[in-house]
Amino acid sequence: MNVTRREFLRLAGTVAASVYIVSPAVGAEAVKIPVLMYHDISNLFDDTYTVPPSLFAAQMEWLHNNGFRVISLREISNPPVHDKAVVITFDDGYASFMDYAFPLFQEYGFRATINIIGGLVGKYIPEGGNSRPLLSWDEYRYLLKSGLVDIGYHTHSLHEFKHEGVLGVSDDELRRDLRMFRDTLREETGTKTDILAWPYGFYDARKIKIAREEGFLYLQTSRRAFFSTPGNYIDIPRKDISNRHNLAMFRTEVTS
Q1: Measured between alpha carbons, how far apart are the two ends of the chain, in Å?
Q2: What is the CATH number of domain 29-255?
Q3: Quick check: 158 and 174 in contact, CB under 8 A?
Q4: Beta-strand relationship, 227-229 and 149-153
Q5: Of 67, 87, 138, 175, which sits most exposed with the smallest number of CB within 10 A?
Q6: Number of helices followed by number of strands (H, E) in the chain
Q7: How does pLDDT run across 57-108, given as a tens digit for each residue?
Q8: Beta-carbon contacts of residue 205 (< 8 Å; ≥ 6 apart)
């Protein structure tokens, strides 16, 4: 059943689901996988963080009609023998995911990872004269229950350091933030995560070391490239998809 955000807020339950973890494969054959990065899906904003709903639907339909299998992020450690595997991620956790992405993912059986800002769940991100609403914990519990969605860390309260990302804070501050996110996620959903996406794409070797020590295994970057398996899971490149990607450009990102 397709559930809109409005319908969800009236009807949805709050049962959490466990996170499924795939063990790394030994001797796996190399596979080249595009990891796509989205943010908001909306007609209200015209910026590189936003994809219009009609264009997003066309992109998902193209993937489905052309035999692509959208797998979870963790499956890159043991990908299926499939030359058309794709990973789809969303950063920040915008409420538009419930209206425009999730119904399509239910229909096509697609998986997704939402990298969320823990301290802003259920709130808004100001954007000029408007605000972008974010998904609530109730919605994340519902999405986790579907088995189609995983949650990743996009900081708990460090997202405001726009110019430097986590490089704008001390090692101790990052460690506290990672732990706060982990504890809040467990309290709200009963689950844990080992997935991280660096805010604004900034990080260094020390920040990677801290994230690894805190139990994060799959570290996503903003470096534009394919992920080739068997690869380095602490340096997962992603292809940012924006409103400038018409269908022809989208096909190029996925296949070239």
Answers
A1: 35
A2: 3.20.20.370
A3: yes
A4: unpaired
A5: 67
A6: 8, 14
A7: 999 999 999 999 999 999 998 876 667 999 999 999 999 999 999 999 999 9
A8: none
CA distances from 168 to 158, 182, 244 (A): 9, 21, 30
Q: Which helix (H) or strand (E) holds 27?
A: none
The sign of the CA dihedral 156, 194, 3, 79 is positive
Whether the Cβ atoms of residue 79 and residue 22 lie closer than 8 Å to each other = no
pLDDT of residue 5: 54
The pair of three-digit structure tokens given for residue 17, joined into one six-digit string: 């689901």
Structure-block tokens of residue 33: 């996988």
Task: Indicate the SS3 state at residue 79.
Answer: coil
Q: Structure tokens of 74?
A: 């963790």
Which helix (H) or strand (E) covers residue 180, if one does? helix 171-189
Helix (H, G, I), strand (E, B) or coil at 237: coil
Locus of tokens 């066309």: 58
Beta bridge mates, 197: 220
Percentage of the chain with pLDDT > 70? 85
- For residue 30, count other CB atoms closer than 10 A to its CB: 9
Q: Where are the domains of the chain?
A: 29-255
Count the residues in the chain.
256
Q: Tell whether the model's pLDDT for residue 13 goes beyond 60.
A: no
